[in-house]
Amino acid sequence: MAEVKLFRTWSSPFALRIVWAMKLKGVPYETIYEDLSNKSLCFFILEYMDEIWKENPLLPEDPLERAAARFWAKFGDDKVT
Questions:
Q1: Do the Cβ atoms of 30 and 4 come closer than 8 Å?
Q2: Per residue of the chain (81 residues), what is the pLDDT tens digit?
Q3: CATH code of domain 4-80
Q4: For the chain, domain boundaries
Q5: Is the dihedral of CA 50, 11, 68, 61 positive or negative?
Q6: C-beta separation of 5 from 64 below 8 A
């Protein structure tokens, strides 16, 4: 079983960014689909993770590589949405 659990909805294009990043980095994960009309406790906890987790470990340390990663994330967003 994967150590990382990805809580998402089937319709979220933004969750695809995480899926792509996990696959590119080779991080094993388990997808857990949430029903937005009946949210689990984990879903509410994850809303506050942004305050706790300031740094994004999926982005490279090098500023040029970080900019390129953000470019491709924006490109993916524009193509999906």
A1: yes
A2: 567 888 888 888 888 888 888 888 888 998 888 877 776 766 666 666 655 665 666 778 888 998 898 888 888 888 876
A3: 3.40.30
A4: 4-80
A5: positive
A6: no
